Amino acid sequence: MGAIRVILTAIFSIFSAIGLVSVILSKAPLGSLIICLAYVFTAMALNRKGGIFIRYIGYITSFILSIGIIGAIYAAILPLLGSTFEPLLFGSSLVIGVIGVTTFFLLKKRASDVEV
Q: Which pLDDT score is estimated for 56?
C-alpha cells in the first residue's frame, strides 16, 4: 500500500502543479486555485501532514473524484440506450473514479492507523 500512496501523492501533486501553472499563464480562471489547494491538501493528507481539516478536505476531494465511477457506469450502459460506445468517456471516468475510491480508502486506513 505504500507504493500506491506514493503514486497517488505524485498524481495529486502533478495535478496541482498543472493547475497552478495554468492559472499563472492565464489559461485557467483564478478560482481554479481552490481546486489546486484541494489537490495539495489531499496529497498532504495521504502523507499524514496537517490536521483534521486537511484530512476532511482530502475526504471531500476523493469523494468528488469517486463520482467518476457513475460516469463509467453510464458510459457502459450507453450502447444499451441506442447510442454509440464512447471509449474515451468510459476510460477517463473509470480512471478518475478509481483514483478517488483508492484515495478515500487509503485516507480511511491512514486515519484508523493514527487513532488506534
A: 94
